[in-house]
Amino acid sequence: EEFSPEGVYTGEPKAIFLQKINTECLVLNPEPFRDVKGLNSREVTFTGAYTNLQISCECIIAFGDVNYHQAQYIYGYKMHNRLYGCRSMAHYVGVFRAHVLDIVDFIQTPPKDPALFLVRRLYCGGNLGQYMLNKRRNDAHLKNIGLVDITPEGLQADAIGMLYFNSYQSCLDLQDTIVNRNKPWMVNTKLLKCPEAKNMNNMYKKPADVFAATLIMLGLAQKFGHNQRKLHTIDHKTKTVIINKDGIDPRHLVMFEIIQQGLSYDPELRPTASAILYALETSRHLSLMAGR
Prior knowledge:
Protein kinase domain-containing protein, Kinase-like_dom_sf, Phosphorylase Kinase, domain 1, two-stranded antiparallel ribbon, 6-stranded antiparallel β-sheet, 292 residues, Transferase(Phosphotransferase), domain 1
């Protein structure tokens, strides 16, 4: 069994970074912060507190095979534990199963089966977020893990705008080429936004992460109120990525060079993840200074 009778996660890997959740100490805001209905589940996120820690709590209600969802999130825990020491990673506090009405009252017809609850910490103080960022010098690629789902939906932001990766279920062990085909919830590589997506044949490589992360940077650098939804165009005929520089806020033009490099059509010409992270941290600081 992956869960004990009390609903506490006990399976592999040993959850050395997760603690047993005492639901009596869990205080959630009554109104959901986010409510998303997918094909296989409904995921409702609440903010609140656990003891003295500000947290978010995600309630996952499975529509179909409970074992499928359990396998999916256990896989996410494994990746969470492997990436715990890396910078810009959101952290689980704990996980438990319980009947929905025992924890929150937000749905008219709650499911009969217990739901899965994921408790994560929120970074609400600037000093803590910056401290954690400075202390973590690892990144996922140094651990041979691809993040894959680097999208606005797969990232969390704290009170000072620091971004934290949160979509552990999408992560891939880059030394294990079979994992792509064995996990049904994995992202279809053909649907990725990098130029080489259609030619990957499910063989995911690190430069695809760099391209996705750079797209996030490009979106953050966009002018306020700019009407053009896409700031870049991939031209497969000329094998180039065209960036609309006019759509970038002048305060963030300091980021343009690293954005150009990260969006290189040729994956081999893109910087490493470490270089992108360093450039993003430096550029973000310069951009903020320029905006004063």
